[in-house]
Specification:
With 369 residues, the chain is of the alpha/beta class. The protein has 16 helices and nine strands. Helix 14 links the parallel strand 6 and strand 7.
Amino acid sequence: MTSFKHTLGNYSWEEVLQSIFSKTEADVRLALDKRKRSLEDFKALISPAARPFLEEMAQQSRAITKKRFGNTMQMYAPLYLSNECQNICTYCGFSMTNKIPRKTLTDEEIVREAEFLKAKGYDHILLVTGEANRTVGVDYMCNAVQLLRKYFSNISIEIQPLDQDEYEKLIEKGLYATLVYQETYHRETYKIHHPKGNKSNFDYRLETADRLGRAGIHKIGIGALFGLEDWRADSFFTALHLKYLQKTYWKTKYSISFPRLRPFSGGLEPKVEMTDPDLLQVICAYRILDEEVELSISTREKEIFRDHIVHLGITSMSAESKTNPGGYVVAPESLEQFEISDGRSTEIIAQMLSKSGIEPVWKDWEKRW
C-alpha cells in the first residue's frame, strides 16, 4: 500500500535545502508572474532571494485569499482534555519526564469547559490531549466527542496518531477533522527530539494522514514545528505532503498551521530561528502556491503579528486559548503545554476583526446528527 513515506524517500533533505538557497531573484519573479505555481516555484518563494519581494508576495496573498474566502475568518478554540503523556519530547511541557501534576478531565468537567466556550460563541472546537493510550485512548475520545456533539457543530482533534479503524470509529461519532503535525520531516533530528514513547516512531506518525484519508475524514491538518530544523526545508516538505494528499485523497479538505517553538517548563532554544518576516514569507508562499488550503494561526503569536497577518492569507484563528486541561473554568492553575502570546479575550479579537473589515465566522458546518 502506497503512502507518503515512499514519496518522501525520493528526496534528500540536503539537496532540497541547497536547491532552495540556490534560487535567484529571477526564479522568484517567474514564480510570482505565473498563474499556477509548482513546488519548484514554492522553493523560490521561501528562499532568501524572495525577501525583497515580500511586499508583492503579501499583496498577491491578500488578493488570492479575498477572492477565494472573502472577508471572513473562521474562529475556533482549543479544549485541552488531558496532559497525561507517555512520550518524551524535548520541546513540550507535557513530556513524560517533566515532573508536573497530571490531569484528565471527567465528563462533568468536559461539559463545564464546553459550556464556557459555547457561551463565548464558538461552534468549532479542537480537542487536545497528550499521547497516553491507556488514559485518553480511543474509548475516552469517542465518549468526549459524543458528549460535545450537542454543543458544537464542528469537532476536531489533535491527539496521538491512531489506526485507520480507530479513526473510522471517531468519524462515526461525529469527528470532523484531525490535526497531526510531523514536527519535522528531518528523520535524524526527529529522533533527537522524540527519544522515547510511541511518538518516536517517525514512519507511523508520517503515515497518519494516509490512514485518515483512507478512513474518509472530512479535513486533515498538517504542519511542522518551526525551530526544530531549518524552517525552509520543513516548509517545502509540508508542501510536498500537502500536494501528495490532495492528489491521493481528493475528497478531503486540508489545512496548514504554523507553530513556532514557545517557552514551556524546561525550555528548548530553536535550532534555527524563524523571525516574523520569515513567518510572513512562508504564509504568503503557501497561499500563492495553493488557493484552496486553509491557513491557520494560533495564539502562540503576538498580538501585533496576528492583527496584521489576518489580512495576508490566514483563514482560521483561535482566541482566548488555554493550553492546559480545564484551563477555562475547571482547573486554570494546571500546567500549560506552552505559553501563549496573544491573551486577548474572544470579544476583543472579534472586535479587531470587525474593525478590519473581516467577519468572524463561528459556524460553517451543519451537524450530521
